[in-house]
Design a protein that fits this description.
Length: 224
């Protein structure tokens, strides 16, 4: 076991990369990346490995959760469902049922084994798509589940430092901390370059534009 170790759930997106930067200020890093049959799986892994080269974490764990694709119910994993370019419904089709609960369970299990005291996750409930597992009440409740369901001496805590920030504020924080945004991937689709049209791309592009900055990621189109 290593002292002062934190698990970071790192998808390869901007939010999790900013979380990794924040965690690196205080903790040794253990990066957890989860493949679950998402359409952007290959691109996310490619950029995750780039982030690993940048941050040089002490530990890396690439976990498989392909049962989420088998369960279905999300346009991120179901090839018969089209990823929408806008998300106007309360809970959009890109929601993967209880994904963060499953991811945090894997992170908790690993954290308990390696002796990590913190789990960083990049959820936020300001600029988010209505996912129920991205809310503050979910994080608070999950921490209680961890307390009850792990050994008394583990004392693992999930922290969500971006919970109350919008995308513009997250980018501002990342720039201040030196987050390598050019090594992040946000697009829901798995094309060679980001589509620029899905809701995730749009949210990212609008935030950079609001700051008067050029997004370093290449896009197929930028329809703002």
């Amino acid at each position: 076991m290593e002292k002062n170790l934190a698990v970071v759930l790192l998808s390869s997106g901007m939010d999790s990369a900013v979380c990794a930067t924040l965690a690196s200020q205080t903790y040794q890093l253990a990066f957890l990346h989860i493949q679950y049959g998402q359409k952007a799986e290959k691109k996310e892994l490619e950029y995750f490995l780039k982030l690993c080269d940048f941050f040089k974490p002490l530990k890396i764990f690439i976990a498989k959760a392909y049962f989420l694709k088998e369960i279905g119910g999300s346009s991120l994993t179901n090839n018969t469902l089209e990823i929408p370019n806008s998300e106007n419904s309360e809970i959009p089709s890109t929601y993967v049922p209880f994904r963060n609960g499953i991811f945090l369970s894997i992170a908790t299990s690993w954290a308990e084994v390696i002796g990590a005291k913190k789990i960083f996750i990049g959820v936020n409930e300001v600029d988010f798509s209505g996912y129920p597992d991205c809310r503050e009440i979910f994080i608070k409740t999950f921490n209680e589940v961890i307390r009850i369901g792990t050994k008394p001496e583990t004392q693992i805590e999930v922290v969500a430092p971006l919970l109350k920030l919008n995308k513009k504020e997250i980018i501002e924080l990342g720039i201040k901390l030196g987050t390598p945004f050019h090594l992040t991937w946000s697009c829901y689709k798995g094309e060679e370059v980001a589509c620029g049209e899905c809701s995730s791309c749009q949210l990212r592009l609008k935030a950079f534009k609001a700051l008067g900055l050029q997004d370093p990621l290449p896009y197929a189109t930028k329809n703002l």
